Amino acid sequence: MKVDSHQHFWRLADREGQWPPASLQAIHRDFGPEDLAPHLQAAGIDATVLVQSLPSIEDTRWMLSLAERTPWVRGVVGWVDFKAADAAEQIEALARHPLLKGLRPMLQDLPEDDWIADPACTPAAEAMQRHGLVFDALVLPRQLPALCRFAARHPRLNLVIDHAAKPLIARGELEPWRNDIAALAALPQVHCKLSGLLTEAGERRDAAALHPYAQALWALFGPRRLLWGSDWPVLRLAADYADWWQLAHQLARQFHPVPQPDDLRALFGGNAARLYRLAFTT
């Protein structure tokens, strides 16, 4: 199975005062399953994981309802306020839905870089662990040390770093990003998404610019903890779906050590299916 581990849908009517602004014309409109389906068909992708883009329980419920009537959306990553007094109870209620596979606090938008390292997040993390949910980490490079402390505190909570923590590709900076990612990769429950790199590349949107970052991820996470994702429709700011699908395969062919066929199947589907416990019918 080929799986896109990271895509979004949204309705502008729900996003008043929220990102994206009107100046980002390529993504300032509604996006739903009918918009993504042709791209999936062209790439031969069988399933997706739908990821939240608003910090609201209502948006999570809307995504779950959309997934119920979209056969190829096999999982949803929603949102809960991790520091709410009733966060564990909210997670308990949401986890009753079989399509809820993970949760994502929008850490990159929070003013405190160490927000997630606060022990106040422990009840929510433990509730996620009890229900087998995946923690999607939307972070920037400067937040990686705090994320590492959080992950070390919860060794049985599966965690995946979205968009490789958005390295500063446009500036050609590898450190301290690579060193901080390595500390997280040393924890066996931590995974990473090969996604979002093109939108961080500025004008350098080619394999040569992305290769040092993608190669670092391959070397650190290996063939069983790296997941491909499109980050569509945010991807539209840099390229179309087919461009990134093909470029990701080009990057993979340049990895060292060279991926075996089973490794490529894992990167482009198997790892996401296993991590998010996606159900497939035959």
Number of DSSP-assigned strands: 8
Order of helices and strands: EHEHEHEHEHEHEHEHH
Tell me the β content: 5-15%
Share of helical residues: 25-40%
How confident overall, as mean pLDDT? 97
Here the CATH topology equals: TIM Barrel
Largest sheet: 8 strands, parallel
Which class of secondary structure composition applies to the elements? alpha/beta
The rounded distance between the terminal residues' Cα atoms is: 11 Å
Shape type: globular
Read across the widest sheet, the strand sequence of neighbours is: 1-2-3-4-5-6-7-8
CATH superfamily: Metal-dependent hydrolases
Q: Which features does this protein show?
A:
9 helices; globular; 282 residues; TIM Barrel; alpha/beta
Explain the layout of strands and helices.
Blueprint: E1 3-7, H1 33-43, E2 47-51, H2 57-68, E3 73-78, H3 87-94, E4 100-103, H4 122-130, E5 134-137, H5 144-153, E6 159-161, H6 177-185, E7 190-194, H7 207-221, E8 226-228, H8 241-253, H9 261-275
Parallel strand pairs: 1-2, 2-3, 3-4, 4-5, 5-6, 6-7, 7-8
Helix pairs in contact: 3-4, 5-6, 6-7, 7-8
Describe the structure.
Strand 2, helix 2 and strand 3 form a beta-alpha-beta unit. Strands 1-2-3-4-5-6-7-8 form an eight-stranded parallel beta sheet. Helix 3 packs parallel to helix 4 and helix 6 (177-185) runs parallel beside helix 7 (207-221). It is α/β, with parallel strands linked by helices and 282 residues long. The protein has a single domain (3-275), classed as TIM Barrel (Alpha-Beta Barrel), CATH 3.20.20.140. The termini are close together. The mean pLDDT is 97. The protein contains nine helices and eight strands.
